[in-house]
Amino acid sequence: SNMIKVAVVGGEGIGPEVTDQSHRILKWFSARRGVPVSLREAQYGLIPYLATGKVLPDDTVEAMEEADAILWGATGGPETTEVPAAARKAGSLLSLRSKYDLYANLRPIVASPALADSAPLKASVLKDVDFIIIRELTSGIYFGEPRGIETLPDGQRRGFNTQQYTTSQIRRVARTAFELARTRKGRVCSVDKANVLETSVLWREEVTALHQAEFSDVELTHLYVDNAAMQIVRAPSQFDVMVTCNIFGDILSDCAAMASGSLGMLPSVSLGPPDRLGRRKALYEPVHGSAPDIAGKGIANPLGSILSVAMMLRITLNRPDDAVLLEKAVDAALAGGARTADIAEPGARKLSTQEMGDAVLNAL
Amino acid sequence: SNMIKVAVVGGEGIGPEVTDQSHRILKWFSARRGVPVSLREAQYGLIPYLATGKVLPDDTVEAMEEADAILWGATGGPETTEVPAAARKAGSLLSLRSKYDLYANLRPIVASPALADSAPLKASVLKDVDFIIIRELTSGIYFGEPRGIETLPDGQRRGFNTQQYTTSQIRRVARTAFELARTRKGRVCSVDKANVLETSVLWREEVTALHQAEFSDVELTHLYVDNAAMQIVRAPSQFDVMVTCNIFGDILSDCAAMASGSLGMLPSVSLGPPDRLGRRKALYEPVHGSAPDIAGKGIANPLGSILSVAMMLRITLNRPDDAVLLEKAVDAALAGGARTADIAEPGARKLSTQEMGDAVLNAL
Ligand SMILES: CC(C)[C@H](C(=O)O)[C@@H](O)C(=O)O
Ligand SMILES: CC(C)[C@H](C(=O)O)[C@@H](O)C(=O)O
């Protein structure tokens, strides 16, 4: 069939609350715009753990296995002590990224004019900010071996981790960056620390070689990671597509979050390798975490999850017009003054998670 | 004698220009305030390389060896192709940090009210920003072994680096942080990635153990590095002393640079282990690099280097009143409108490097 299979996994903390809203939005596109999705809800976290002994029960594994796209909420983090570490690790986000080989993590940073007042950066600095960070997600220091903590002969302890990249790991994520740049402003900035690290020397050589061989129409520049962090704060509008390794991407994308007003606004997708038809398994999720401090209160910002649906419309569902429709609806809701607590100016009326979902649906 | 020995090494790029100004300032404190320094100038870089085959000639090594403090300018970076890589590496900043065991790198971030208009962050966000990042400087992924690039059986290449820390490496830099916090607002924030890396798990355990054993009067908190990057942009005034590993400190301090208006304003010191009397070998340098694009033009901002002299007055020379005197003179010069090109509003008159030095001397 032509139906695209989507697994909806709210997860823990504020995950289920925000995913409820993005789920409603996705159903609206299915019902009103004929977007051919078949939705399957599945559970993750403490609740299935208590019932089955697994945070990721077999039913959820099956739903994710068969899905073209996963709409993911959030996972609990170390605060959730009810689940033993081993059970949590077995079904962790890191293990899922690895299992589905979701090596290309795309994090768009777009500054909303409506939020310029509540952002820490000046409106003049936020002007024209529209870039995407592509973070390599299944290798680097997150997964490198050997790793551990050992006791030395003198009784001291030593912790060690391995940063590592191979030619093909670098080239495939760089390819994603170059291909994306061709659909945008045609510029890729590759970020490394080639003045210190051999992994970065190889990174730079391989990105450069792929560029010369296949993408010389795209403009390629290189920045050291320290300078990149500074430039993201100083003048974020200079960037189009930025590509970097796992740990640098983790840090830089949070650093860039403030160039969009609020972490709560940021969507993301993690893409696996393309199949024969160019289709890639995709996990869509807001950049924010499970925020246990506000979980269950109904006050979380659902826009990160809702904008992840816009990314799904554009990438997995190949419906760019619908993606723009949804992004415009979010802009309109914000321009109309809709604010959850995290983006509200002092004294402004604060919408609940559900009311923000309503505001976007009304604007559609 | 009671004379404190200072080696003055301007280095390359804009290094000599900015160091000329901080050198003048240091001589002023010697002549007018009786600060007991004995100054020895020494060369570094292309010029001694052409004469002796070494970027760090024997005379400079001797001057640095005998010095209590080194006033350092900048080194050329990879752009300077006239010096072969091996010769450059033999005398590199990394090798000096390692040779003198300068493990604690202190980078103060202070927002100047006079510069709030030209900073990318809002004045409200910059209010009350006054913190210090302590970066571990002689271990971590910068120096860990094994490292390299190997060719795999299938012809692919693989780059690898080792992030590593031992108990004592963590504890000694954490000690510097706790001791410094006692002289300030009494708060330490330790930054790691303990939800992913074993090195960070050990880091957190050892910082916590030292805190409990000897510094429970200091407030200790922990942040993940991605969150720390975001908080530095979002609300930098929350921090007092931040301590972290080599690579995270490299990235976070550049990220924080924008909270002070300009990279050109930032001073730093790298401290070695204390001797019996608590004295520590110290290398003072501006955070900025050699900026080859503007070298020789006389337009670089000397305040990073001049404020490094203020740090020297406070730490090596134990003259806190003189340190404050100099910091106030810099504030007064800025408040009086003195601006080099990097911090000038459009249309404002731009001072040369020398004129900025004059402005600070006039304010003294
Ligand atoms: C929770 C953590 C393991 C994760 C990461 O570091 O990848 C998170 O920070 C993220 O960015 O998705
Ligand atoms: C030039 C480079 C090796 C150096 C570093 O990464 O330590 C620089 O960025 C710094 O921060 O002093």
UniProtKB/TrEMBL annotation, chains A, B:
Gene3D superfamilies: Isopropylmalate Dehydrogenase (3.40.718.10)
GO cellular component, one term: cytosol
Cofactor(s) essential for the protein: Mg(2+); Mn(2+)
InterPro entries: IsoCit/isopropylmalate_DH_CS, IsoPropMal-DH-like_dom, Isopropylmalate_DH
Presence of keyword Glycosyltransferase: no
Keyword set includes Transmembrane helix: no
A Pfam match: Iso_dh
Origin: domain of life: Bacteria
Any one of the GO BP annotations: L-leucine biosynthetic process
Pathway assignment: Amino-acid biosynthesis; L-leucine biosynthesis; L-leucine from 3-methyl-2-oxobutanoate: step 3/4
Location relative to the cell: Cytoplasm
Function noted in UniProt: Catalyzes the oxidation of 3-carboxy-2-hydroxy-4-methylpentanoate (3-isopropylmalate) to 3-carboxy-4-methyl-2-oxopentanoate. The product decarboxylates to 4-methyl-2 oxopentanoate.
Protein name: 3-isopropylmalate dehydrogenase
Gene name linked to the record: leuB
